[in-house]
Amino acid sequence: MQNISEIDELIKLISRLPGLGPKSAKRIVLQLINNREELIKPLAKNLAEVYRNISRCKICGSLKSNSTGCNNCENNKEKYNKICVVENIADQWSIEASSVYQGYFHILGGTISSSNNQNKEDLLINSLVERVIKDNIEEIILATSATVEGQTTAFYIQNSLKNTNVKISKLAQGLPVGGEIENLDDGTLISAFKNRQNFLQSKD
C-alpha cells in the first residue's frame, strides 16, 4: 500500500467515527479521492462551516447555530410545560423523529459514572434546575438509558430537583434493561413515552 501521510492521517481520523473501522475508512477515503469535486470540496467547506458556527448550548446542551441561537430553549414559538432529559444529541434526534413527544429537551452530554462523582458540572444539571424554576416547568421526563450509569444519573437529577414542585416521570414499558434510547425503534419509544411512570421520589 502506498505510504502517503495525508491519506494515512485521513483514514485514521475517519476510522475513529462510530461504526467504522480501518477497512471501512479506507473505502470512504478512496470514494472521496475518486470524487474530489463532488465530495471532497463541498465536504471540506461544510465541515469548516460546522466547526465555526455550530456549538453546544450552555443552557440546554443541544446543538445551536452561533448566528441564530438555540432553537430548543431560546427560540421556541410554542410554550411547553415539560422537559425531556436525554443523555446525548442522538437520543434527542431519535425521539424527535418518532413524533411521540412535543416539548423542550435537555441534553446532558453523558452520564454520571456509578463508580465516581466526576463530570457532574459538565452535565448541565444545575442549568436544568434553573430552567424548571424560570420556565414554570410542570413535568420532567427522564429518558436516560436503562444502564447502571443512566439510572445513577436519573436518581441524581431527581435528588437535584427535590426542592421544586415539578413532577418527575421516567420512560416505562418497552425500554429494555441496558437499552440506549438512540437504538430503539419508533414503536418502542412511543410505548415508553405513553406509559411513562412517576419516578420514585426520595423521602429525605
Number of domains: 2
Largest sheet: 5 strands, mixed
Q: Spell the H/E element sequence.
A: HHHEEEHEHEHEHE
Q: Tell me, what is the CATH class of the largest domain? A: Alpha Beta
Percent of sequence in beta strands? 5-15%
- Rg over CA atoms, rounded to whole Å, is 20 Å
- First-residue to last-residue Cα separation: 65 Å
* Helical stretch tally: 7
Predict the CATH topology of the largest domain. Dna Topoisomerase Vi A Subunit, Chain: A, domain 2
Instruction: Provide the residue-averaged pLDDT.
Output: 83
Unreliable stretches (pLDDT < 50, length at least 5) are: none
CATH architecture of the largest domain: 3-Layer(aba) Sandwich
Count of beta strands: 7
**What general outline do the C-alpha atoms trace?**
elongated
Share of helix, binned: 40-55%
Main sheet strand line-up? 4-3-5-6-7
How would you sum up this structure, described in words?
The N and C termini lie far apart (65 Å). The strands form 2 sheets. Strands 4-3-5-6-7 form a 5-stranded mixed sheet. Strands 1-2 form a two-stranded antiparallel ribbon. By secondary structure, it is α/β, with parallel strands linked by helices. The mean pLDDT is 83. It folds into 2 domains: 5-55, Helicase, Ruva Protein, domain 3; 82-198, Dna Topoisomerase Vi A Subunit, Chain: A, domain 2 (3-Layer(aba) Sandwich), CATH 3.40.1360.10. Helices cover 41% and strands 12% of the residues. It contains 7 helices and 7 strands; from the N terminus they run αααβββαβαβαβαβ. The radius of gyration is 20 Å and the shape is elongated. It has helices at 5-15, 22-34, 36-53, 89-98, 125-134, 148-160, 186-194; strands spanning 54-56, 63-65, 82-86, 104-107, 139-142, 167-170, 197-198. Helix 1 packs across helix 2 and helix 4 (89-98) crosses helix 7. The longest helix has 18 residues, at 36-53.
